[in-house]
Design brief:
six-stranded mixed sheet; DNA-binding; globular; 14 strands; alpha+beta
Length: 254
Amino acid sequence: MKIATWNVNSLKVRLPQVIDWLAATQTDVLCLQETKMEDKVFPYGELAAAGYHAIHNGQKTYNGVAILTRPDIDMPQFDLPAFDDPQKRVIAATVNDVRIVCAYMPNGQAVGSDKYEYKLKWLTALIRWLGEELQRYPRLALLGDFNIAPDDRDVHDPAAWKDQILCSEPERDAFRRMLELGLSDAFRLFDQPEKIFSWWDYRMMGFRRNQGMRIDHILLSAPLAAACTACGVDKAPRKLERPSDHAPVVAELT
DNA sequence: ATGGCTTGAGTGTCAAGA
């Protein structure tokens, strides 16, 4: 089973790219972030015509997450429980006996800002809930835009970004706490080339200069990590006209 | 130099992203 995550930065703009990419890659499960639309305008019909079931947790303008699958979807869940939040950042479901959790984690804007405090509180709530979910669902995959670069290897210029947003120690500590639940970073299960990123700034020719960050991740519980045969970033969609600033991250499970 | 693009809302120009 091929699973993937992609922050599309508006599904309205990117829907043709998503449908083309699904057809080209034969992906079984795709988690989307930043759909930026309400549920009532979500393109269920176009996706069904492309062969995909879909569930969506959206809102106007900001955030919004979806899971697209070729297999049937069971036990959908929307939002973090026990964390009152109008921002639509979490959706989960069971697909082929794997619990898929799709998350758009807060950006945080700047270390020390109100949005940064919200990010850290949100991450703590996520981690508490993930611990419970792993008890219920030992076969669990967490996919999404984490807005965290876990390590200096994941940053094009670690000196410039030291202690900045996406790289600060409290954010990296939250990422480590996810790993301590028993999850593995699928990308790091394998030897990887240097300077592989999943996001590049639209400005300053960031993509052409490969000035990016690895902030989109697939974390796997132990049974799934043992079944994972490959993980990488597919840069092809980032080269298209009107791309998202993020590229898909893909993992293959036997 | 805290900008540089891109999107949505909405028709001015700003918030937000990372």
